[in-house]
User: Fold these one by one.
Assistant:
Number 1:
Amino acid sequence: MADEPDECFGNPRLAEIYDALDPDRGDLDPYLRMAEGVGARRVLDIGCGTGVLALLLADRGIEVVGVDPAGASLDVARGKPGAERVRWIRGDATALPPLRVDLATMTANVAQAIVDPQTWRRTLRGAYEALRPGGHLVFETRAPARRAWEEWNRETSYRLTDVPGVGAVEYWVQLTEVHGPLVSFRQTYIFTADSRVRTTDDGRFRRLTLHLPPAYAQRLFDARNTGASDQEMRGIIAEGFKEIYFQDGGGRALGISDVTLNDIDYLDLDY
């Protein structure tokens, strides 16, 4: 597993709505059939997240260990009915206690989230050592030839979900970069009840190109010519980000009051 969980799994507010935004888990049916097919009595669910598969297996009388680095997701899993039947471990497959399971699984995007080759090898080694002789490791990956990432944009992925106890949540996914075999993307969540915006941006350097309306460019010119401070210039740019990036020109998140620019390593303005 990766050293740091994705924001949608590690952030408590996002972890709490994860299941509601992805209610159809028919993708787990093949894993249930595989567990039955190999006669598994003990299963290790690597990257168990909010515990959906682990609990489905436990319902079938299988002894399950669920491991995940995201504490927020594990908190959700532990709060579900029947959670006491599963052994939950916060961590990853590289540092497991002694186990002897019949089947180890990595569902959905778990395997694909491990992009560092050395971490991937350590993950496979950890899974192997957790299996009994003759045990099985099952995971999935995308077919690159389908180029599914070409449809990862707001237009095709946008949806609005009414989450009980939370309210309406807007969600979409946006492709950000394709570099060799690696595909990077950003998931955006807007809680319409308070207009809070959360994204799955991580701590890596990220370039963002934004075309501001002419009015903002004129304000920047005027501010520069009158000797405005860097803070004042940032304030104008932040207002542009608010209108164009976060509010999409008035199409969403209208309740956002302020946007500030912090921790900028590089800023290039092209007039």
Number 2:
Amino acid sequence: MDRIFQGKNSALIGAHRGASAYCPENTMSSFKKALELQADMLELDVQLTSDGHAVVFHDFSLERTTNGTGFVSEHTLSDLKKLDAGTWFSEEFADEKIPALEEVLAWAKGKIVLSIELKQMEHLKEPLAKRVTDLIRSYQMEDQIQLMSFNHASLAEARKHSKRILTNVICSSRLADPVRYLKELQAQVLNVPINQLSPSLIEELHQARYYVHGSMSDDIRVWKTLQEWKIDAMDTNLPDVMIRERVIHHS
């Protein structure tokens, strides 16, 4: 289950929504650029369409990064595929499409680790976790992916459908007892920003055989500090910049 992090001699760098400083976020262009820049992982966001397809998109509404309107969940996959998801970033990416998760899985298989964030709209009671875990299993990629979410009920649901996929608990606040919480959720990774971390907390989690993901930052000072604290991973929009500042730990 822990093949993503096990035996690594440095903290892993995740490309946040792909190489999103250089390409429109959560698009194939952004993912391919991240691979070109030698990121260790791709972070991407997934939610369901009105006809039950998993698509890669961050916001619940379409306006910020496409020429569409309304919620993603109100549109079919074919409707979403007609939208321009690139021009907002640059004319160079005009007519870039919203990817289906299946497209990303087929492209990424055997190439790069995926950190898939489940974007669950609680009131819709969507079968997002089951749909995503079913797709991952159909592509035989359970050891190449971690599932992440602020919605911890989604992670618990994912665990019902796969005992192998790593689950990553995203929190914006300091948990009173993170070791016990991860154990109860059958999760393997705590994902919090630097202001919720300390060297002693990271050591406590490591001693209990859990991993620590330092959220997302483009600040080299944050990256350097987290590496000193022996973090396991951090996401960034600038994977190439962080790679240049990576510390290798020699055993």
